[in-house]
Amino acid sequence: MNSFLNVFEQNSWEEVKASIYSKTEADVRIALNKKKRDLEDFKALISPSAAPFLEEMAKLSRELTLKRFGNTIQMFVPMYLSNECQNICTYCGFSLDNPMRRTTLTEKQIEKEIEVVKSYGYDHILLVTGEANKTVGVDYFEKAIKQIRPHFANISMEVQPLDQDEYEKLLPLGIHGVLVYQETYHEDNYKFHHPKGKKSNFEYRLDTPDRLGRAGVHKIGLGVLIGLEDWRTDSFFNALHLDYLEKTYWKTKYSVSFPRLRPYADKEPKVDMSDRELVQLICAYRIFNEELELTISTRESEKFRNNIIKLGITTVSAGSKTDPGGYASNTDALEQFEISDERTPQEVASMIKGQGYEVVWKDWDQGL
Amino acid sequence: MKPLVIAGKKFNSRLFTGTGKFSSGKLMQDALLASGSELVTVALKRIDLKNQEDEILPYLNHSQFNLLPNTSGVRNAKEAIFAAQLAREALETNWLKLEIHPDPKYLLPDPIETLKAAEELVKQGFIVLPYVNADPVLCKRLEEVGTAAVMPLGSPIGSNSGLQTKAMLEIIIEQSKVPVVIDAGIGAPSHAAEALEMGADAVLINTAMAVSADPVKISIAFKMAVEAGRMAFEAKMGKSVKEAVASSPLTAFLDEL
CB contacts < 8 Å between A and B, how many? Predict the structure, then answer.
């Protein structure tokens, strides 16, 4: 059976890291001048040697994005269904050892959330939960999706990894995409950050996109949590994963997000990534893969988001609440992390239009 | 210029257009009006019939435009047939641009699923214009199952690289009994002119207009190029030759006999 694990095992973290840091300006120039870039070019583009080429990378990234996606930006919003979680993740607000009040939305509460989110104009929604298989398992998802489905053109999920047969059960109910971030591809560090719960199984998580691909999902969202490990090395592994998946599950679409760890409960990320470096990474992904959807969330600041719109991003969330029930009632105490850009969806939409882009609310249909 | 007739409908413009990637609905409308296009394709997945403020449909509500719904986003014949039925109901037209591209990267059409879907949709009364690779045999097979036209690609969609499939397009044009619309890859007015000069019946343009710095101006340029190409085709151009031909060296001896 196909598995990324086989590819993963052939690449050592330390060797990859050394290879990225040894890329030269000449390597970057070669990558920029090519028609199509491979994984070695991606290494060069994310390496420190590419820093002086940032403006050139941004220009190229913008051109390639325009060519493929036109003057459009897709809008979506997350809907948190539950903050119950049996995992301990050292960086997450929902971590089992964090003494917060836990809640899972009832049918009635979901109804209220739908109402508010629809009033903002959203037609694409991302369902988010922690990992509490007994209360928020396949049965819960099945009910929730059936309830939510008639109201949205496009539904994605960012929930605990599931088995292939569970995906096969949920996808036909109207799930378009599934997001599953590896968090980090550094196996030892992964185990340190995920000491307890089902999530502590590195290989099961790493194998999730394969299970999704086999189940025939339309779109898979990948990403690493920036702040846990050396972001360049982690991003290379993410690109390696993407490259493998694209070739294996060629009917599936892919997206990548760039979540930078936000402070929560007074904890600071281990590794810092500057704004310049985040722009470099976004542009590197675009130059490497012209068809990839690139998403930016409300974790990032207003100013950063205003400026990144033109540099390669295709998908944006706005007005997000990271606590279950947060749209209908204010329950900040339940949130996963603090968002940074607090503007309303309409304010963000106006900002996007002001930059000469059409704001796309609907790009899928319930009938499809 | 001879008008183009597809499934009994007359078109004075041989420039068909797409509606994606424009920076606003208004700009799209301005560009499409300027292009003279009378057939515009619109993705079922992009339109929102429940929302009065839909970004596309109100701008296409104009006597110049006939709508050609497309099935963009579907991955097989079954999904395409379902989407076609939805589109027919939603937009009240049985015209359909059939596009089935399971590969989301290059959006290349699946020939097997396209043929299957076309056959069924024709039976269901649709006027089917299938988007296909530049495959002459496939185009004949589609014609046989009753499609109203064929729409082979010039190069990958959105690539703006022109008629990279020229040798195959020439065969398709030569053999086809239904109109041939070259769809995808046309990036410059000169490409469009070339297609019409070759004898293509029409072209479909989207990206090249939508992402231009001046979509209205380039739409006019495309309009002129399509007209120029068609007129040249109708006028029959002289054959291009590499050297001057002064006399008839091979048959001159006949005069001396």
Answer: 78
pLDDT tens profile A298-343 = 989 999 999 999 999 999 999 999 999 999 987 666 777 778 889 9
Contact between A299 and A340 (Cβ < 8 Å) = yes
Please spell the DSSP secondary structure of B108-173, one letter per residue: ---HHHHHHHHHHHHHTT-EEEEEE-S-HHHHHHHHHHT-S-BEE-SSSTT-----TTHHHHHHHH
pTM across the whole model: 0.86
Q: CB contact, 8 Å: B23 with chain A? A: yes
CB of B21 less than 8 A from some CB of A = yes
Cβ of residue B75 closer than 8 Å to a chain A Cβ = yes
Nearest to A368 among B51, B74, B207 (CB): B74
**Above 0.85 for ipTM, yes or no?**
no
| CA angle at A186 for the pair A208 and A301, rounded to the nearest 5° | 85
Query: What are residue A246's phi and psi, to 5 degrees?
Result: -60, -40
pLDDT digits (tens, 9 = 90+) for A244-257: 999 999 999 999 99
CB B22 within 8 A of CB B215: yes
Which pLDDT band, with edges at 50, 70 and 90, does A2 fall under? confident
Residue length, chain B?
257
Name every chain B residue with its beta carbon within 8 A of the beta carbon of A357.
23
Mean pLDDT, residues B108-131 taken together: 97
Q: How much is the pLDDT for B56?
A: 83
Distance of CA A259 to the CA centre of its chain: 7
Are A210 and A162 within 8 A, CB to CB? Answer: no
Residue A365 pLDDT grade (very low, low, confident, very high; cuts 50, 70, 90)? confident
Half-sphere exposure of B210 (CA within 13 A, CB side): 27
pLDDT band at B157 (very low <50, low <70, confident <90, very high): confident
Scored b (16 or more CB within 10 A) or e, A199-218 reads bbebeebbbbbbbbbebebb
Residues 93-132 of B with CB under 8 A from A: 102-106
Residue from the list A68, A362, A367 with its beta carbon closest to the beta carbon of B82:
A367
Catalytic positions of B = 97
- For A6-21, write each residue's pLDDT tens digit: 999 999 999 999 999 9
DSSP type of residue B45: G
> Does residue A220 or residue B107 have the better pLDDT?
A220
* Candidates A70, A291, A364; nearest CB to B21: A70
